[in-house]
Predict the structure.
Amino acid sequence: MVSDLNVNELMGRERRQFYRVGPSVEEPIVLKTGDGNFPLIEISGGGCRLPIAAQLSILETDLLDLCLPGISNAIKVRLRTMNADEKSFGVEFVELDPQLREVICNYVRSREIELVRRFRDQASSSC
């Protein structure tokens, strides 16, 4: 059964400027740095969450490649670390072109629709 927290996230009840989603396991979102490629844990129009292993690879002055599924060209991003815990850290997109932010937001919206459909299918099949 889906927890109340997951239901609230799926229904868009977060109190944030940008809605966050986790990428599909089948189609991960990858941040390319000089030290390697790191899969994102979550993404929004305002930033993303990465595994803690990526933290030492990111400098705020670097312009990095963010690779979204279904988008042929990588999105160039600068990141600023906002918070961290023992497993992951959150970053904010800095000076991101509004058109590129919209590309990210479109991905988030389409992923949200996919998650809501999956939730509805699970809910209807458990009745």
